């Protein structure tokens, strides 16, 4: 009997990759200690190597950390990082260096939550093919806390404006799940907790059809910045029927013709030390070893 497949299961829609999360930070040294030493990530060796910006590689994605007044994402960023015990040991090692900051970390059943010195929360998961595909190091999702009653409208906005799959799930709260890459999502979880004002942080995605979202956003006066020929930005998510404001988060939209689209990123193996160095193990693979497709 010929095998059948759910072809829709492989649909990505218009967005093919969530490349970076950008938050300003006031101290490059502390950021290096948290993201590089504590989490075990790698500073981009090619770009932004001065002291006014810090790009940290996470598999095929990045954190962008320009120097400036601290910005805090209203929600959290999900990471896949192999080696729970090693992660906990690294975070414990750097803890004394963060006295007087908001740094913290805590174990949960299926993740370790770490908080940066300025309050950004990151949930670090072990690789899990059922949940995250073949990713062993990466950013599978960014979750935002949004007002009650906005998830449905947010899902419609992304489907109709950006042309990506988006649906709402019901659990302890309604969550709009927006596909922005292979095993990558923007999640918008409804909460009745008060949220701080938007402070300018952003996420960046690559899209295939670059002009159609731009046209639809322009029709509603939602394009906030025209960066260059390869890139534009918008901030406000609105109800497409009423025009009501639903949520604000800056989106950096890049074309797949952007010169940096899916450029290779170096990821070091944080287990390598001067005391236990082994040649041939400097770099860390961001995906699982070869095997059958599943």
Sequence-ordered SSE layout with sheet pairings:
Blueprint: E1 15-22, H1 28-38, E2 42-43, E3 55-58, E4 61-64, E5 75-81, H2 84-94, E6 104-107, E7 112-115, E8 121-125, H3 129-132, E9 137-147, H4 151-162, E10 166-170, E11 174-181, E12 184-191, E13 202-207, H5 211-219, E14 223-228, E15 231-238, E16 245-255
Parallel strand pairs: 1-4, 5-8, 9-12, 13-16
Antiparallel strand pairs: 1-13, 2-3, 3-4, 5-9, 6-7, 7-8, 10-11, 11-12, 14-15, 15-16
Helix pairs in contact: 1-2
Features:
2,3-Dihydroxybiphenyl 1,2-Dioxygenase, domain 1, single chain, 5 helices, globular, 294 residues, alpha+beta, eight-stranded mixed beta sheet
Number of helices: 5
CATH classification, class level: Alpha Beta
- Total domain modules: 1
- The stretches of 5 or more residues where confidence is low (pLDDT under 50) are none
How much helix, percentage-wise, in residues? 10-25%
Mean pLDDT: 94
Radius of gyration: 19 Å
Please name the fourth-level CATH homologous superfamily.
2,3-Dihydroxybiphenyl 1,2-Dioxygenase, domain 1
H/E topology pattern? EHEEEEHEEEHEHEEEEHEEE
Alpha-beta classification: alpha+beta
What form results from the Cα inertia axes? globular
Question: Strand sequence of the main sheet, in spatial order?
Answer: 2-3-4-1-13-16-15-14
- Give the amount of beta strand, in percent: 25-35%
CATH topology: 2,3-Dihydroxybiphenyl 1,2-Dioxygenase, domain 1
Largest sheet: 8 strands, mixed
The beta-strand count equals: 16
Q: What is the rounded distance between the termini?
A: 19 Å
**CATH architecture title:** Roll
